[in-house]
Structures are given as structure tokens and as C-alpha cells.
Amino acid sequence: MSNRQVSTLGIVNSEPSIAVNLLNPQNIIVAFINSSNGSDSRIVVSLSQDGGISFTSTVLPYPSGYNGAGDPIVDYIYPNTFLVVSHVFNTSASFDAKDESIAVYRSVNGGSSFSAPILVNQGYGINVTDDKPFLVTDKSGGSPYLGNTYIAYTRQLNNSPVLWQVHFHRSNDNGQTWSYPVKLTKPHSSSNYSSLTIGPVGEIYAGWIQEDSNNNPQGFRVVKSIDGGQTFSTEVLVSNVIFYPHLPTADPVIPPFQFRALTVSFLAADISTSLYSGNVYAVWQDTRFGSSNILLSISIDRAVTWSSPTKVDNGSTGSQNFFPFISVSSDTGDIQIVYYSNRNNSNLLDVYAAVSTNGGGTFNNSRVTNLSFDPNNPVSTFIGDYLGNAIIPPSQNVAVWTDTRNGRQDIFIGP
Predict the structure, then answer these.
(1) Domains of the chain
(2) Does the pTM of the predicted model rise above 0.85?
């Protein structure tokens, strides 16, 4: 598979997420943010039935009473179901968001059509807002909760930076109905950018980045559930985190670029029968070595303890490497991490993949993009907060990312 353009609608596209039908790997779904004019925001789902060679696109409808959407994540449930979670909201004339809520869309026919949106949890004005959802489905054959679906997101109260808390919902009917929320983080803290993964016997791992009221990082933290998401352990510190500081009136940026570059938590667990089955992997971007690098920490005891973080990327000193996303093959246990890097030209970006076949002991980095691109052309302060990848069985990496090689923000796919 060469680099191919996925997006065909609108002029601005970002935040792609990808899922593969494990029973029919030719069936691939990519969900992403799309804008028809540079100011509106909606979710597009692109369907491939030929392994990512060609795509057809569908715009998902807003829930009644909403006029904006973002932050899509897609995942797959046996045998032919795909779920897309999205952050939905209303915008004013000044484009300030309110009524931020979490919605899910279901397809039971391999992505050929999707249901009307299902509200998982509702926000109200700027007093109760729900943002940055993450969705995962239990695909582990050894799990008593096979087929369950879980969502985590950040709930912000009263527009206060110290009242950002990670909430969690579960569904045992393929996303048709959802539990009441479970609060995963402590009160009076700023917890954001959550992620989820599932272990070999159905363990749920939830992670997030903790910050203080001044946006200073307080670490990558994780909790675990062994009862299908009914209860969770006390939180464990994976690692301290160092990132570029927030600007006085704006989000952090990674020089020399102009777009915001948030530090987001990502988790993946090995559910294969490999030597590394049960391992849990945490990845994030970090500036402890002077510039931005991709760091990895490993737990071999089901998230009780974590290794000291190691650098995954092999970019040259001073290069910027950021926005990691991780997947682990359920067949082989191979680890696949994709990320942006400016190692080839300080003003341009490429996508790289770091692959480990020995449980994260060593990584081989290779270029995914066949053409470097300038993310500041067109000038942009937002290229999304993440890219994505998935595994085509048994262990082929497939990545999706925001790309500006055509002079606009498009979604591309590549090996």
C-alpha cells in the first residue's frame, strides 16, 4: 500500500482514527474531522472494501440541537460492527463551543451505513463540558467481557482548570446503551487526554495526563479494572512528563511550527499468545532530552509497576518527534508506534513508524510518508491533536495522518 488520499470532502481535515475488520481485513474504516469551508466541523467516515486502496465517504449527522463535532475515535467489534465516538457541541458566532457532549455512532454492516447518534453523556452550556473521548472494544478471546465497549473522556466543570476529571462509561450491547459515568480521577485536579486499552483476560487500563492549575505536568497516570469496568484500582504513576510549556494565552507549540501540540496519553496491551502477552505499553511525547521525543514505558505485571521511560524514535539530536499512537498485534505481539517527525527538514513533517518484535526491547524506525510536507502551509494553528494506526492481521502496520502536500489539510493512509 502506497500513500493514498482518504479525504475527498471539504478543505480542512484532521484527527484521523482507523479500525480494521479482523475477520475481513479488506474492510477498513477511517473517521476524521472535516470542514467544508474552514469554520464548520463535522465527522466523516470513509469506508474501504479493498484494503485501503479506495474509499467512499459519509458525513455523520449531528445529534438534534448540535452544530459541531470533533475528536473521532473508531473501533471494531466482532463480527461486522464499527463504533465511532465523537465530541459534539454548539458554536456561537465567535466559534466558542458550548453544550459539549459525547455521542456514538454504530454500524452493524461493516461501515456501509451508520445509526443515528446516541448520546452517551450530555454537557450543558459552559458549566458542564465533555471533551476528548477515547473508545476501545474488548477483542480478547480470553476475556469474559468479549464485545464490551468502553469510553473515557474529560469532564470539565464550571470552566475551571482544576475541575477536569476523567469519566468512564461501559456498554455490553455493542454501543446501543451506556452505563452511568464512573469518575476515574481525584477531585480538584486537572486530568485530561485519556486513553484506554484491554488486556488478555479483559482487564481495562485507563490512562491520562495529570496537570496542575497552571498547566504544569504532574505525570502519566493509570488505573485498572478487572471486573469489566464496574470498579477501578487506585491510580499508579507511569512516569513524570515534561512538555513544551503552555503559552501565556494559547496552547503549547513545538518550534518551528505554529499549530498546538498537546501531550496526550496512549496505551496498548498485548493480548496475543506471544512471550510478551499481558504486557502493557504507555507512550507519549516528552522534552526531557531537549527537544520532543517519543517515550515508552512498559509494565510486565498488569500495570502495578512501570519501567523507566526509553526513547522510541531515532531522530537526530534536536529533531521534533510528536503525536505518537500505538497498536499491538493480537496475533504476534509486535508493537507498532506511529508519529510525526521533522528529522528530514526542520520546517517539514513526515510520518514514521517504530516497530518492535521483542516486547519493546528494541525498535526499528522507518519512514511512512513518501513526501515531506509543510504543516504551516496553509498557515494553521491546528492540525489535530493526534494521528492513528491499526494492525492488518497478522502484523502489518497501517497509519493515517493529516497531510498538506496538496496545499490543504487532507487525510492520508500508508503502510
Answers:
(1) 4-414 (2.120.10.10)
(2) yes
